[in-house]
Amino acid sequence: MRLVATLALAAVLAGSLVTPLQAKHRDGVADVRQYQLDNGMKILVKEDHRAPVVVSQVWYKVGSSYEYNGITGVSHVLEHMMFKGTKTLGPNEFSKIIAANGGRENAFTGKDYTAYFQRLHKDRLEVSMRLEADRMRNLTLDQKEFAKEVNVVKEERRLRTEDKPTSLTYEQFIATAFQTSPYHHPVIGWMDDLESMQLDDLQQWYEHWYSPSNATLVVVGDVKADHVYRMAKKHFGPIPGSDIKPVKPQRETKQRGLRRIIVKAQEEVPYLLMGYKVPVLRTAQDENDVYALEVMAGILDGGNSARLARELVRGKQIAVSAGAGYDMYDRIDNLFLFDGRPATGHSVEELEQALRDQVERLHTTLANQDELDRIKAQVVAAKVYELDSVFYQGMQIGTLETVGLSHKKLDEYVDRVRAVTPKQVQAVARKYLVDDRLTVAVLEPMKDKKEKDQPVEVKGADNAK
Amino acid sequence: MRNKFLVLLSLLVVASVGHAGPKIERWQTANGARVFYVNAPELPIVDLRMVFDAGSARDESKPGLAGLTNSLLDEGTGKLNADQVAEQFEGVGAQYGGASLRDMAVVSIRSLSDKPILDKALDLFSKVVASPTFPEQSFQRNRKAMLVGLKVASQRPNSIASKTFYKQVFNDHPYGIDGSGTEPSLKAMTRQDVIDFHKRYYVANNAVIAIVGAVSRSQAEELANRVSAGLAKGERAARLEKVERLAAAKVKRIKHKSQQTHILVGQPGMHRGDPDYMTLYVGNHILGGSGLVSRLSDTVREQRGLAYSVYSYFSPMREDGPFMMGMQTKNSQADDALKLLNSVLKEYLEKGPTADELKRSKQNITGGFALRVDSNKKITEYIAMIGFYDLPLDYLDTFNDRVEAVTLEKIKDAFKRRINADKLVTVMVGGDK
Prior knowledge:
- The complex is a heterodimer of chains A (465) and B (433).
- Chain A is built from 17 helices and 12 strands.
- Chain A is α+β, with helices and mostly antiparallel strands and 465 residues long.
- Chain A has 2 domains: 208 residues, CATH 3.30.830.10; 189 residues, CATH 3.30.830.10.
- Chain A has a 6-stranded mixed sheet, sandwiched between helices. In chain A, strands 7-11-8-10-9 form a 5-stranded mixed sheet, sandwiched between helices.
- In chain A, helix 3 crosses helix 6.
- The longest helix of chain A is centred in the first third of the chain and has 20 residues.
- The two termini of chain A are 38 Å apart.
- Chain B is an alpha+beta fold and 433 residues long.
- Chain B has 2 domains: 209 residues, Cytochrome Bc1 Complex, Chain A, domain 1 (2-Layer Sandwich); 182 residues, 2-Layer Sandwich (Cytochrome Bc1 Complex, Chain A, domain 1), CATH 3.30.830.10.
- Helices cover 45% and strands 18% of the residues of chain B.
- Chain B contains 17 helices and 13 strands.
- In chain B, a hairpin with a 5-residue loop joins strand 1 and strand 2.
- Chain B is globular, with a radius of gyration of 23 Å.
- At the A-B interface, helix 2, helix 4, strand 5, helix 6 and helix 12 of A face helix 3, strand 7, helix 5, helix 6 and strand 9 of B.
């Protein structure tokens, strides 16, 4: 799932050269208003009055990158258990109340965050705040509910990872690239850790991380910021804050040469993943590097006119698909990724060579101005398009705050990307896209032809009994 | 030409409850394209979505043809090749998209509304839709890519299950065709097939144009004319044959090396504009359409922890689309899970929902109405759907009233008439790992 998200970011780099328009729309859009409660909880509100709706998200600074061996997946299992009742609510009652109020809700866990959200008619915002404040403090972790829910999570892992060869490859690839960094662990956790997870693991995790001082409330929609603040103060204000020791840095140990793995899985077509270790906005010594990497992702894969689609999919026809991507808003150093599938008649080795030729070209040849202009045009337009979704706006604000950046970085984005020069792109290619930072994974088909799927027909009407 | 009095009445009701949808205007271009437009001046964006009755249901003996045609539109037009088309869209930050479903072929564009930018994006869009060159090289490449796609899908239990399910439910009806194609069909396909398909179906009389954004009515008229002017008038695609109900239950078990077994159970369901539409929609919302609080989710996931995802839905199309229940669970408990799935359905058919369930579902659907139309993107999709399926313009305005009109008796009655538990298709894929 993460790879998809990462590559999608590069796809967002799809926009144009329109400074006056950009300035114009900014005047019409409210800025983010920021508040803080005495217990440390942050409240961020963005007014958007286009429709009578609101999205409310509670973000906790905890996710799989806060975990350690033996309890991997605990953040995500706890996320599931947060729907299983409090001192005053029964299992699943949270969801029933939101539903009866016309709401849609869910939650998601990532490497760096666990977040809960509701989308509602603006008049129902207080329902969500009352319920979120309740489960921030009063969760009841019940053994019977846990026993069932951890099975649900195991099914989720089978669905998303075990039976999905590309996900399986991605998981092994990441675990190879990162040896000491906590990005080593999959968000959903290793199956063996899920098997041995105890209720007490969850209890400790909840008590340690679920505190207003470790949470951010993000509200976007047809609301008044001061009103949201007063409402939040009423519901979250009485919860005492706590002293949370910052998580240890766990920086990745220096890589000393190219790493390469093979993953065999039930598959017919090979798949390739390549990743170079790079800094992110929060860790970079020079932020310019990060924006240059972002532009580099655009040069390679910012739309159908970018190099990978143009040269590898269409031109040489070596790949049926080829992508590049980079998530600059991760909490700690991550990878600049490439992935792809070879076209019929081409090997995965040829595809790898073609991708590495692309890297080499970034080292030796400056990007031309047309390419950069197109990326910048796309970035400017995409910034306007994203205003069409209150949910996405909330996601961005919440992500940045939770990884330890200010949401104000979002306002810098367009200008910083526009300022990147071809020379800067070349410089980051030379600095980061080098073999000593590279990990390569190949998904090797192991389909046994003899055991080709045999449809077995069983006729009869007894299935409904 | 709806009854005037009824329309007025519904407007009154809507006004008092405050659930009016966006104001939709409709007209026809000189050459016959049906246009649906909503003014949304808040953001400097224009969304334009063209929908042709040219989905995979029109593939006939050449499965994959509709999808291949749609994927090739932006591969060249006039003197421009695929690189230049992409450069020109992306150079102004416009986002071009295409999709091929069973009923619909979709072509869409999102652009900033700034006039020079919009003009550039829409001029190119018009050419891409009306006069694609379908270069031989692109045809060969995309055809091969689809063949690779088939190979990848052949190892995915969810794809195997879904393809088998549609085949079993729809048999020889065009909805039984899988839009991703088949190996023999794709191998036999020629560029001329694509040209012919485009010529026949990408025509004005077969098109619906939805426009939402910061453009006035007169600007929208001009845009609609521009994107349809290059199209031949043509003819609207002929009505599809009706979907026949199944004569008997069918069980299809397919062995696959996966940890989970994917289970799909269902039969032909309902169509857009179906007199039972809202009753079945609300009834299914209770059964398996409301996420974590549905009956199926409560029984299978909440109470027993058997699956991460369990659901049911009606997929209404021009003709009866499928009714489907689905879940995935580890192989060893698949048979028990199937029994459970069927017992939930059986009980629901016998007893119907409870009054409390109906009340809660209505509250969820009506209380969440604003969320259906809270972005230009969603409004664009809605009005394209309303236009494509010839639904009344007040479809959204009357939505909540129609939900409120559903009763326990109506649900029980409609499910009994429409769903036959003794004639279900059951597909199970997995079990071999």
